[in-house]
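Deliverable D5.2: sample structural annotation.
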Amino acid sequence: MIKANTTKLSAINPATLIVGVDIAKKLQWASFTDYRGLELGKAIKFNNSKDGFKNILASIETTCKLKGLKQVIVGMEPTGHYWKPLAHYLRAHDVTVVMINPYHTKRAKELDDNSPTKSDRKDSLTIARLVRDGRYYEVYLPQDAYAELRVLSNTRIGLIKRQNALKNNITAVMDEYFPEIRTVFKKPLTGKAELQILKSCPFPELILALGIEGVLAEIKKAVKRTVGRKKACELVEAAQSSIGVNYGLSAAHLKLRLLIEELELLKEQLEQVKEEMDLALTETGYKDLILSIPGVGIVSAASFLGEIGDPLRFEHPNQISRMAGYNLVEDSSGQNQSRTVISKRGRKHLRSILYQMAMVMVARNNEMKKLYQYLKNRPDNPLKKKQALVVISKKAVTIIYNLVKKQARYEAELVFNQFRKNQIKQVA
């Protein structure tokens, strides 16, 4: 970490113009400093438009000419999505753009005037001085297939959130009108039979009016196999003793139909996204290598590459783990010793993807299953389930990175070295 910061500091020299930009939706502020952090003129504001971008670029070029500066570094916070157009515009004009952690800006801006007061002008100067101190990280804007994968991954995340919200709304309606349906269909909103019942006869009054044969006929519209009679009987029995309310049935029924139609549309959209992910994953050239790992599927592989870009842009898999916030931190002082935890200072979506990948690998990958059991049951410092899954996540990163780097497919015998194999055998 110290070496990395030294490298960044060495990029700042007397010929460097440092620009700190406070990003906003409409109006943005920029402060100019030299390599010592001294302001070069007053902060300027510019619109988040092409004319505004031209103005800030012209100001940068003018300042460089007047002060005899040869290189420029522009620092900004990754505020929502508003930073991307400016970063893209500046990079297209050969201007170096770096990112500042918003948490660092918040803490550092009190150093100058001992005040937490926030202003766009003040923040832009703080950002510039953080760049001067080497407290920045390189911006990465994915290109080609990786850009497609990132957009598709974000699209899928949005669709999943909407899907979960819809399921919660449907569950809320049924809890009010027919809570006993959960005793019949144990896994909510997962089967075709349940969705058909919710669309056609979701409430006790409607079920009792149809009777067992009528409910069975509705189930068979969705499920062709002859397994619906037991469910039909259970539904009628549950309807007879239901405590659900019986007002506004017509409007509630309409609401349910609309929610389910939207839910089915989302399911189709998720399939479309998966198909596009498959195509973009193929374009990377890594599809067959990554999918050779038992427990890693198209969605998880595509989402992983969408978050990190080309794995080979990293020198070591630990850099990817750090990017996910999986680096370990310890909070201890003097006699007070704290437990070691992951920092969570990183891309939370990447962390979520890796965690879900680890859960599937533990179930379907024999090597990861053995490692998981070892981590939980080892005699010294056994881990809890979630802690063990974090270790599996980091191991998954290492495996993917090595397969891509060596252009090799997954081989079970090469997953662990002999020392780890002996450890696992002893616990087993």
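Annotation notes: Residues 148-272 form a domain with the Helix Hairpins fold (CATH 1.10.287). The chain has a mean pLDDT of 90.
The annotation will be released with the project's public dataset once the embargo ends.
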